[in-house]
Amino acid sequence: MTDPNTGKQWKTLDKDLGRISQVEYAANYVSRPLVAPGIALAFIILAGLIAAMFFGQSSGTLTVAAAAVFGAYMALNIGANDVANNMGPAVGANALTMGGAIFIAALCESAGALLAGGDVVSTIAKGIIDPAGMSDPTVFILAMMAALISSALWVNLATWVGAPVSTTHSVVGGVMGAGIAAAGLSSVNWETMAKIAASWVISPVLGGVIAALFLAFIKAKIIYTEDKIAAARRWVPVLIGIMAAAFAAYLSLKGLKHVIKIDLLTSVGIGVVVGVLLYLVSVPLIRRQSQGLENRNKSLKVLFGIPLVLSAALLSFAHGANDVANAVGPLAAIVHVTTIGDIAAKVTIPSWVMVIGAFGISFGLFLFGPKLIRMVGSQITKLNPMRAYCVSLAAAITVIVASWLGLPVSSTHIAVGGVFGVGFFREWHTERRYRANSKKKSSAKLLAPEERRRRKLVRRSHFMTIVAAWVITVPAAALMSACIYYLLYSVAG
Hints:
Largest sheet: 2 strands, antiparallel
Strand content: under 5%
Radius of gyration: 26 Å
């Protein structure tokens, strides 16, 4: 016979085990959001330890270690925010999975930073502050530390809100605010600041216009033709050649400028040669890839898939080469002053500083990047491979044009401006076709004005949030930097 007490004990044990399993599930659910910050914190601490190890027992070890900690924090934020602009369109167009985009971006960003990141960087953020205004090394170190902390905090806040902002402009604002706090308004190069303010408007508008023009070209020459596949065989190699030319010029001018000194005319010549070669190579490849495809828009997406992935990878490489130095510039300046004792407009970046920047970007992208990738890729407007390709192509061309005009531009503003340009062009094009068709239909079949407004192809809430974040980036980073400088100065004093 079965003891009834034993049965009760088993039931009680089952209930207790059930409670324990529920507690374990709840603990796992609660701790999951803490994994990414935990890994990030471990990387930041490791960066500080590496800096301390390189400096040993010298008097400035603590200062350099603290700067390395904030430099690593800044690099993490660049990966979380800035890199999303390069990979967002490819992910939104379903040409890349989120995992594939993160892997390619991390690899290309690190390669760009370590291989072509350059040995020399302007530590005063492209001439924003006159070094003569901060002749005291201690004041200079505190100013650079404040700039590093404030720019990192601002980019972190923007990522949390879901707004892609310019890391370069955040650093510029941080340096400007700390410089004003340390040496007054006269220490700021206001002519350079005026150029940067102009780039807030020019670079996204230029990127948007170029992206819209390419999309209009693709619609006219490929999508709205009778034989779409034949048109694609003719024009897709041309677009690939243009892409190759733009990126070759982009990389030679921006990404590789620290390795080999190249002027704008030479970089354009390199671009033309590479573009022609890629055009000749892509003609038979596109012809072979298009065989057996149906005469519809879905088939066209296949032909643009690989060029889109390549363009996203090249954008990441160029971004790593060009923007990592901006992030670690203040850190390199602190290391130089602590080691040498004098203030220089340009310094050599130690290899361990570049490694912190490169790996920090990769970790930031892996841990926190998906949020902004989704925002840029799918939440502003709907993208397909053709539209996303136009965005990537516009980004490369806009940098070349802006360099020719002598404007300091932001890759973030250009890429997101390209997404806006594609979206607003689609709105305009859809409205034009609607009006043309409305002349042929009765009023009963037409959409009400409220319904047409509801079907806008660019989300206005995201548009306003992003533009507002762009406008206040420099002043917000400057104000934070000035406050942090006064705090550090009072503690140091």
